[in-house]
Amino acid sequence: MDYSNGAYLYIMGAAVAVFVLAQSVVFLIRAVRQGRRIGLSAKVMKDAAVSSATFSVVPSIPIVIAMIALAATLGAPFSWIRLSVIGSMSYETMAAGAVAGAANIDSGINVFASAMWVMTLGIISGPLFNIFGLKKYQSKIEDIGKRDPKWSKILIDALFMGIIAVMGGQFISKGVAAFGGFASEEIIKNGEAQLLTLVSSALIMAVFGFVIGKTKAKWLENFALPISMIGAIALSVVYHGMFLGGA
Q1: CA distance 82 to 68
Q2: Residue 126 in contact with residue 132, Cβ under 8 Å?
Q3: How far apart are CA 245 and CA 247, in angstroms?
Q4: 181: which DSSP letter?
Q5: Per-residue pLDDT for 45 more than 50?
Q6: Which of 35, 60, 79, 238 satisfies CB 3.0 to 4.6 Å to 70 for a cystine?
Q7: What residues does each domain of the chain span?
Q8: Model pLDDT for residues 129-161, shown as the tens digit of each residue
């Protein structure tokens, strides 16, 4: 942890943050210039900026929560680097866990360095795909949409649910095995609590979806994810206490 919270990584994190903020400033300046060019008033642009800033804070809460959780094992600066630009808690923990599992140990500078490489190189695949393949992929999706809009929607939904299945399937299988007693305690450790946490978060999100659908309160969509995440974390503490004998 002395290395993972060292000054060098904080400097790297600061450099990444400055680079991202610089990009934001450049795009903001270009947006203001374009707004003036097409005749938007200063008030309209100011209102848009204030509204965007306001509704960017709440969706960022899950990212902050994920960073705090990840910092416990990978240190604050690297967690900051990974989640301040691109990445997600699900992917980061899965990648780090895979490295630790392959090394068969939970700590050590070699495992930490390996986790950094795996997490960073793995997430780079997304931007690389966008650079070289996104245009062709989008054109294919548009062609399918023109020929059969219904099938296009099913295809996109199936791709999204496939990602969810990869991320959540492990917790469902561990939970079912834990409740049914199908595997050893070492394999399914905390399985019950993990499954109940997953189900709880889905139920909270479903309640938000129901309320939004009934009231047409679209503004609630910005609060659905962070509240579901915070609620699931709180319930997870309760569930782990139940199944680990209050530990």
Answers
A1: 12
A2: no
A3: 6
A4: T
A5: yes
A6: 79
A7: 1-144, 148-247
A8: 889 988 888 888 888 888 888 888 888 888 888
Supply the Cα-derived Rg of the chain in whole angstroms: 22
Residue 97 CB partners (closer than 8 Å, separation 6+) = none
Q: What is the pLDDT of residues 103-113, one digit of tens each?
A: 555 557 778 88
Separation between Cα atoms, residue 170 and residue 118, nearest integer Å: 20
> Which residues, in sequence order, are CB contacts of 59 under 8 Å at separation 6+?
222, 225, 226
pLDDT of 62 > 60? The answer is yes
DSSP of 4-65, one letter per residue? TTSHHHHHHHHHHHHHHHHHHHHHHHHHHHHHHHTT--HHHHHHHHHHHHHHHHGGGHHHHH
Q: Which residue has the tokens 């060019």?
A: 37
Element (H, E) at 194: helix 191-215
3-state secondary structure 107-136: CCHHHHHHHHHHHHHHHHHHHHHHHHHHHH
Query: What token pair was written down for 119?
Result: 């997490």
Both structure tokens of 59 = 């969706």
Comparing CA positions, the residue from 80, 73, 77 lying closest to residue 105 is 73
Q: 76 is written with which tokens?
A: 């604050």
